[in-house]
Each structure stands twice: as C-alpha cells, then as structure tokens.
Amino acid sequence: MTMSTAGLFNPGKFVITRSLNDNTARLMPYLLRHLKGDWGDMTEEDKNENDLAVKVGDLRIFSAYETDIEGAEKIWIITEANRSATTILLPSDY
Questions:
Q1: Where are the domains of the chain?
Q2: Where is 33: in which H helix or E strand?
Q3: For the whole model, what pTM was predicted?
C-alpha cells in the first residue's frame, strides 16, 4: 500500500515486519510522528542527519521510538533513501 501524507516527505510503500503484524493500528501514531519529523529517541546528530535527509531527498530517514506495546518496547521506522518504502520493525528484525 502506498500512503499519501501531509508530512514532510513521501513514505512510499508502507511495510511492517511479521513480528509486528498484530500491532498495526497501535503503530500508526509512531508512523505519523516519523512522517512529521519527530524522530523519537535519537541522538541530536542522528536527528540532524534526518533533517538533512528530508531536505536533500536522497538519504535514508531513521527513527526510533520507545513504546508501551508488549513485545515491541522499541521500534524502528526506516524510510529508504529513494522514498520507495517505509518499514516499521523491531531492532531484532534488522
């Protein structure tokens, strides 16, 4: 599925790993944060890299969030450099 967005960039195709399939609805607020430039639990350097990636458009965008979802206490959201896909995954899925 391709999502349109009112965010800072086009996420491309939305992908979720199997380990998170049962939590799709609960992950949407984190996806919206990612699309609006709230990079979550990242260092200032990493946040600045994401800001640059949004401006230049050909770098990967990476966010990390602490959650209250059992079995998914931390998630990553990665938008590919070419904006073809945005993936939500557990760090252990990487």
A1: 13-93
A2: helix 24-35
A3: 0.91
